[in-house]
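Worked example 3 (structure in, sequence out).
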């Protein structure tokens, strides 16, 4: 009789077991179907890439043969070089070249040469003028627009107006000359049937191939391109060479369709089984809920009677009496904790802790004694050391763990510090003063020396830091103040601990930092920092590798100086603005690389970073990535090579008083406008401004490194008249050369004379 209810309960859950097994079977079939489709798609993808590679290789070989046999042929070249001259013999020689070119290539339907100077079209058997030529519209399109790809899509070719039916061809267009196409075109027309035969020869059983040109027109395997079953399961690949797209799919997709339909039926049945299982479980749970309801009824009665001081007596052997006794103990503990919370002791402890640290001078000894007694603490206070434990990289910590796990880790950190302090015999009061910081108040006894409590505090902090690093998945940084005498010194000690903790910005996280005995020295190297930050953008724009050592120097100065987070943010934002201004001087395509890139490592607020090395690595890596893209683009530009040569030439001859843009243009056999335009586009600076800046940089070096008179320096940097030099120097630097020399601490030569008429 006692097991009847148990057997009924077990048997009542059998439908749920069947539903689970049924769902597992469905899952197996669905997974099998998905795996088969995925493997088929992968195989079709590899096959499509191979077919596309063979097609591309065939067309590339044909293009290379065209370049070698026609574009580089002397007879063909002379044909384009003599427009308007009638020479039937030479035209006959060119026609023979075309015939020799076509004879070993059965794929070619026809070849013709178009000469733009006089509109003449020459084929292997005849010559024509453009207005009378049947393919004139194609020639006009090819001459008017630079084609996206070397090969056209499928098109109709009709060479003569009298032809009965146009032919379907794919055309190769080669410009003459190769890069500009000013003289004309070489057009190779390949039969559509040749490509269809090539594709058909590569076709495998149970697969269908559909080849489309860049315009989406199918011209190989066209019978299957309209089959929706094949197209839905087809794998597409696009050729970067021709822009054509190939699709490969199964010829008979009925098996997949049947399996998919079969899987859908199983999914419907599985859903029905799950719904039935849920309904059965709900019914069974309601049916077997009555004993639990009795327990809950007793809990409610206990809670109501508890207000009158009534306690139920447990009966030996009664299971519900045992449950009732356990619940009674739990409720008593809960009521006790709620009472404590109602009195606000825990909250008051935290508030009192913050008041001591932030405005301890406003609390008298009597107030402290009363508050300490209220929260259950010893009121004796001879002195203390203040510490702060901060969880490093809190944003990652909060994102990686749930709120429950975070609370557990924080509890562990607090308990570890407390336990280590007890072992060292130090009285410690800890409270969380923020979501990321734990305040530590190490209290000194009356008979303990200040040096002893400070040494013990550092030992406790180092032990806790090491334990956290070894056993937990995060690190903590500790800031420790000097000793504080009495309550009034706690706020100052708290500020010392905050200052010590701020050293994490430059020295790194996961360490213990003690406050120095005296005030921190002011940040040094600000002038050098600003100067380096101003030089980096220009060097980076010019592609000068010297920007990297300057960046390293900037971060060395930031790490070595006592800079606040606000200072670091302002300086790095200054660097970002300088880079943005300089990069706008580049040509449009190079400027686009910069605008589309993402400069990392520039903080937008002091709260967005913890350690300066976080910014260092991100900034350098992002600059290197964009520099690589810019360098690749520069290497592919002929104008950039020329501009670099001009820049090198200027660097060698800038001291020549007669040096000018005309001198450069004559040296490079170009006109001045072209040289000026190319230099401005590639270097991002006018020729005159660049020359003046180069001369002034050398002048500044001579002014600070030598005692030569200004007149001599002017001649050495390319100025015959000192007044011209002084005027340009003041325009660029804002001060005269003599004033600059004095500002740099270099004594003027006795013969210096700058005059007063620099305007």
């Amino acid at each position: 009789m006692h097991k009847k209810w148990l057997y009924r309960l077990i048997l009542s859950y059998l439908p749920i077991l069947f539903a689970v097994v049924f769902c597992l079977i469905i899952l197996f079939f669905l997974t099998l179907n998905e795996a088969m489709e995925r493997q088929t798609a992968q195989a079709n993808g590899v096959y499509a890439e191979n077919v596309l590679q063979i097609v591309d290789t065939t067309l590339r070989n044909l293009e290379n043969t065209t370049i070698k046999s026609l574009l580089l042929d002397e007879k063909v070249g002379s044909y384009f070089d003599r427009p308007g001259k009638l020479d039937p013999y030479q035209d006959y020689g060119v026609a023979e070249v075309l015939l020799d070119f076509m004879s070993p290539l059965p794929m070619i339907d026809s070849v013709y040469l178009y000469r733009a100077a006089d509109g003449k079209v020459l084929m292997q058997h005849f010559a024509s003028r453009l207005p009378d030529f049947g393919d004139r519209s194609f020639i006009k399109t090819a001459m008017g627009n630079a084609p996206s790809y070397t090969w056209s899509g499928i098109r109709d070719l009709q060479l003569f107006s009298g032809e009965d039916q146009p032919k379907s061809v794919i055309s190769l267009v080669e410009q003459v000359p190769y890069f500009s196409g000013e003289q004309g075109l070489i057009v190779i027309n390949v039969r559509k049937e040749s490509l269809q035969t090539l594709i058909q020869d590569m076709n495998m059983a149970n697969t269908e191939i559909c080849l489309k040109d860049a315009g989406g027109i199918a011209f190989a395997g066209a019978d299957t391109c309209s089959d929706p079953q094949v197209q839905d399961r087809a794998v597409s690949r696009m050729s970067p060479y021709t822009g054509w797209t190939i699709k490969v799919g199964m010829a008979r997709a009925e098996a997949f369709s049947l399996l998919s339909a079969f899987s859908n039926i199983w999914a419907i049945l599985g859903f029905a089984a799950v719904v039935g299982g849920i309904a059965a479980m709900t019914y069974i749970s309601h049916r077997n809920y009555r004993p639990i309801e009795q327990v809950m009824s007793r809990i409610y009665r206990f809670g109501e009677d508890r207000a009158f001081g009534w306690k139920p007596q447990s009966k030996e052997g009664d299971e519900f009496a045992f449950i009732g006794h356990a619940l009674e103990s739990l409720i008593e503990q809960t009521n006790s904790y709620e009472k404590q919370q109602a009195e606000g002791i825990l909250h008051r402890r935290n508030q009192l802790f913050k008041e001591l640290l932030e405005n301890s001078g406003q609390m008298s000894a009597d107030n402290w004694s009363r508050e300490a007694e209220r929260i259950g603490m010893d009121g004796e206070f001879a002195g203390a050391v203040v510490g702060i434990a901060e969880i490093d990289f809190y944003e990652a910590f909060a994102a990686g763990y749930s709120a429950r796990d975070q609370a557990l880790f924080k509890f562990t950190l607090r308990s570890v510090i407390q336990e280590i302090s007890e072992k060292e015999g130090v009285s410690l009061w800890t409270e969380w003063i923020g979501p990321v910081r734990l305040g530590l108040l190490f209290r000194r006894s009356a008979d303990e020396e200040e040096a002893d409590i400070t040494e013990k505090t550092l030992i406790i902090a180092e032990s806790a830091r090491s334990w956290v690093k070894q056993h937990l998945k995060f690190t903590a940084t500790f800031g420790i103040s000097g000793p504080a005498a009495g309550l009034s010194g706690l706020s100052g000690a708290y500020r010392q601990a905050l200052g010590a903790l701020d050293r994490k910005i430059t020295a790194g996280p996961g360490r213990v930092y003690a406050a120095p005995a005296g005030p921190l020295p002011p940040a040094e190297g600000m002038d050098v920092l600003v100067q380096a930050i101003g030089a980096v953008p220009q060097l980076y724009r010019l592609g000068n590798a010297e920007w990297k050592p300057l960046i390293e120097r900037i971060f060395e100065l930031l790490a070595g100086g006592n800079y606040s987070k606000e200072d670091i943010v302002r300086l790095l934002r200054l660097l970002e603005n300088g880079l943005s201004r300089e990069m706008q001087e580049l040509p449009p395509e190079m400027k686009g690389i910069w605008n589309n890139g993402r400069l990392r490592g520039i903080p937008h607020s002091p709260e967005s970073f913890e350690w300066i090395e976080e910014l260092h690595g991100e900034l350098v890596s992002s600059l290197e990535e964009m520099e690589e893209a810019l360098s690749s683009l520069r290497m592919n530009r002929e104008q950039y090579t020329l501009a670099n040569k001009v820049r090198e030439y200027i660097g060698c001859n800038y001291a020549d008083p007669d040096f000018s843009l005309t001198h450069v243009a004559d040296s490079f056999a170009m006109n001045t406008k072209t040289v000026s335009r190319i230099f401005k586009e590639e270097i991002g600076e006018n020729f005159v401004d660049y020359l003046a800046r180069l001369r002034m940089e050398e002048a500044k070096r001579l002014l600070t490194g030598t005692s030569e008179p200004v007149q001599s320096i002017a001649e050495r940097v390319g100025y015959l008249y000192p007044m011209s030099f002084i005027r340009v120097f003041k325009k660029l630097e804002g001060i005269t050369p003599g004033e600059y020399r004095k500002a740099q601490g270099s004594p003027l030569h006795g013969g210096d004379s700058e005059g007063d008429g620099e305007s």
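Notes: The first strand starts at residue 108 and ends at 115. The chain has a mean pLDDT of 78.
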